[in-house]
Amino acid sequence: DIRKTFLSYFESRGHKIVPSASLIPNDPSLLFTVAGMVPWKGILQGTEPAFATRVADVQKCIRAGGKHNDLEEVGFDGRHHTFFEMLGNWSFGDYFKEEAIAMSWELLTSVFGLDPNRIVVTTHYSDDEAAAIWKKVSGKDAILLGDKDNWWSAGDTGPCGPCTEMHYDLGEDMPGGLPGTPDEDGGRFVEIWNDVFMQYNKNEEGKFVPLGRHNVDTGMGVERIAMVAQGVESTFETDVLKHILNKVCEITGKTYKENNKTDISLRIVTDHAR
Ligand code: GLY
Q1: Which of 80, 86, 166, 192 has most ligand 1 atoms within 8 Å of CB, for mutation?
Q2: What is the pTM of this model?
Q3: C-alpha distances in Å from residue 98, one per residue of 32, 95, 119
Q4: Band of the pLDDT at 195, cuts 50, 70, 90?
Q5: At what angle do helices 260-273 and 242-252 cross, to 10 degrees?
Q6: Which of 194, 215, 222, 225 to mutate for ligand 1's pocket (most ligand atoms within 8 Å of CB)?
Q7: Residue 63: pLDDT band by 50, 70, 90 thresholds?
Q8: Which of 34, 50, 153, 174 falls between 20 and 30 A from 19, CA-CA?
Q9: Paired strand residues for 85
Q10: Is residue 53 within 8 Å of 93, Cβ to Cβ?
Q11: What is the mean pLDDT of residues 126-137?
């Protein structure tokens, strides 16, 4: 339902829906497809022609090495995976920040029906434009953060730019603090969606060269939005992964949520088995 709802929302707004590309990228700088934008790197850089100016898909991703490596986090929290699926919409020289943010907000609150009061947004401190758009679209004051949180690139070189992240508040019963605070990894706030504004290409000399046109690249984890929609505390308890976790418990004779250390192992085996 989440995949279908996402794709039909963007289709009705002029996006061409395409299937997931291979997990093995046609790109010597990456071992695996780490994000939905990987198949579109050439288009974003302007070295390949765009087959459409608006595109949306559900891309299979692996983050188990290189710049985007989640391997060491898998199991220790309930939201990282070596393999996951990324919902994404793109503008190749078509809409930019204003429309991207307005569509993200509408989809999350009016279509998926998430409580607007539980959504927290962050923007890059240099991106006054994105913060002003959030204020206009949602009334929210974005939390301004630096490159670690709000600057995105697939690899050490290539298309990149400032981004704006949408986080969901799982509630005050959960430990953890707001994005950008010392206890941001506590678990209360989960990042659900990232809109990247691809304005630059970082070249081999490390220089940021402005791209000839403005692009949008967004990524929302299927497992994470499912976790929020299904009201569970981790992606492992969603219908995407629960059946694997149950089977791992059955085979090992262990019970989930009885012992913290065992839970980490059960989540790791579940992720890797998937
Ligand atoms: N390319 C956007 C993301 O991975 O968050």
Answers
A1: 86
A2: 0.95
A3: 31, 8, 18
A4: very high
A5: 120
A6: 194
A7: very high
A8: 153
A9: 60
A10: yes
A11: 97
**Could you tell me the two tokens for 215?**
């692009």
Distance between Cα 245 and ligand 1 center (Å): 27
Q: Which atom of ligand 1 is the closest one to the Cα of 61?
A: 4
Residue with tokens 């206009």: 136
Q: Are 144 and 123 in contact (CB under 8 A)?
A: yes
* Atom 3, ligand 1: residue with shortest CA distance: 219
Beta pairing partners, 56: 17, 89
The closest-lying atom of ligand 1 relative to the alpha carbon of residue 34 is: 4
Q: In angstroms, rounded to a whole number, what is the distance separating the alpha carbons of residues 48 and 258?
A: 52
pLDDT of residue 96: 97
Three-class DSSP labels, the chain: CHHHHHHHHHHCCCCEECCCCCCCCCCCCCCCCCCCCHHHHHHHHCCCCCCCCEEEEEEEEECECCCCECCCCECCECCCCCEEEEEEEEEECCCCHHHHHHHHHHHHHHHCCCCHHHEEEEEECCCHHHHHHHHHHHCCCCEEECHHHHEEECCCCEEEEEEEEEEEECCCCCCCCCCCCCCHHHCCEEEEEEEEEEEEEECCCCCEEEEEEEEEEEEEEHHHHHHHHCCCCCHHHCCCCHHHHHHHHHHHCCCCCCCHHHHHHHHHHHHHHC
